[in-house]
Amino acid sequence: MPKIASFSRRNFMKSAGVTALVGTLGAGNSQAASPQKMAKNGTFDFDTPYNRIGTNSSRWDSPAKRYPAGQFKYGMGVASMDFEAPPCITEAIAERCEHHTWGYMSSTESLVDAVVQWSGTRHGLDLDPKSVVLSTGVYPGVIAGLRTFAPPATKVLMLTPIYDGFFYHCRHTGVIPSESPMKRVNGRFEIDWEDLESRMTPDTHAMIVCNPQNPTGNVWTQEELLRIGRLCLEHKIVVLSDEIHSDIVRPGHRYIPFASLPDEAVVNNSVTFNAISKTFNMAGMKTAFLYSKNPTLLGRVVQNHRADLNTLGVTATEAAYRNGAPWFDQLLPYLDGNHSFVETYVRDNMPLVDYHRAEGTYLTWLDFSKAIQAIGAPQMALEKGYSSPEHYLQDWLVEHSGVYLNPGANYGPGGAGHMRMNLGSSRLIVKEAFDSMAAALRKA
Ligand SMILES: Cc1ncc(COP(=O)(O)O)c(C=O)c1O
């Protein structure tokens, strides 16, 4: 008997009807019961699918509830990865669990030190530990930033398509998103500088920068960031830089922390929000951080922010920073391989889909415009009351291929025609999901 009801995989499978995928993954092979078997002689196996079904996973278990008739098979939406975490994380948690007390913690200095070390070693960022504030997620950090710099009913600038969470932040804090759609130029999403600057009005007090950009995968260059930063400075707009995907960057690109830009005034006009949760797939551990080189800005944000950290999140996060690099250094090329696989696959097998090359993140942003027309999604969306053709396509893909993607319309202007797909899975699962979508679209 599982000790936690929600871990009863068999019950879950019965009620949610996702046996097809479980079959693919090897039903009952209870990987979760024997953690760390993926690590052999320092080599991590990202190829063998790791079954998360029935573990209260929003990526796998939420769509199964939404499609109770059992059509859903492949959870390729929510941005969490399917790989087993590195052993150092599980070991650190297990060791802490041996001491059976869970009272308030005395200090988190050691975790801050680990953040500073990682940011310096991997990204050349020189952080003063006093400028780093821990938080329970990037989400609450950005909300505190908005509360501080953007009074209700003022505008917050962002480049779209962008992470849909920012629209919730805006709603939550009563500010108005001011969206500057990017233009696709030679296959890359480029900033429309004229449009961006035209939106830097006196009632715009903050700009959210997403680097790398979710969902398009842009890894912003130093020149782009400097230009954004100088425009914001000139127009008295504070930069809130969300860098949660910073570690996941593809060869040929380099993540530039906003706070490392070679212009002190620009840097001092910014607050950055980050976490290692995407890097090591630890979003459920709810441990993140924010920092600013400008103590005045930081002090103001801190007045609107209170982190309630939890012991296991702190333990796990510090273990990842200090000991997780070997695992991550093997993961990164694997994710790059997934991106390359998808590029070739879409070109060779999916004439109704256009590929766009991501520079970072484990997300791919696919143009389904032709598929949307082929299945009559605009008309069907109107007739059936969907909020967009992409939302209709989302259901259509689940019905016809079992694959669950995120509709582009959720990501603001420029999202039309697109779907976001999560590639943070074993290649086998990625391939099966694509095979299934390609077969469905061939019949469209
Ligand atoms: C750009 C971006 N920011 C923030 C978040 C959420 O961060 P957290 O879980 O730390 O609140 C996500 C999650 O996908 C994201 O993609």
Describe this structure as you would to a colleague.
With about 450 residues, the chain is of the alpha/beta class. The protein folds into 3 domains: about 30 residues, no CATH class; about 220 residues, 3-Layer(aba) Sandwich (Aspartate Aminotransferase, domain 2), CATH 3.40.640.10; about 120 residues, Aspartate Aminotransferase, domain 1 (Alpha-Beta Complex). The protein contains 18 helices and 16 strands. It is globular. It starts with 8 loop residues before the first helix and ends with a helix. The N terminus is likely disordered. It binds pyridoxal-5'-phosphate. The site of pyridoxal-5'-phosphate has 14 residues, from helix 6.
Helical element count? 18
Q: How many strand segments?
A: 16
With strands numbered from the N-terminus, the spatial order across the biggest sheet is 4-12-11-10-9-5-6
Residues in helix, % = 40-55%
Shape: globular
Q: State which percent range the strand residues make up.
A: 5-15%
The CATH architecture of the largest domain can be named as: 3-Layer(aba) Sandwich
Kindly summarize this structure in a few lines.
The protein is α/β, with parallel strands linked by helices and about 450 residues long. Helices cover about 40% and strands about 15% of the residues. Pyridoxal-5'-phosphate binds near residues 79, 139, 210, 275 and 277.
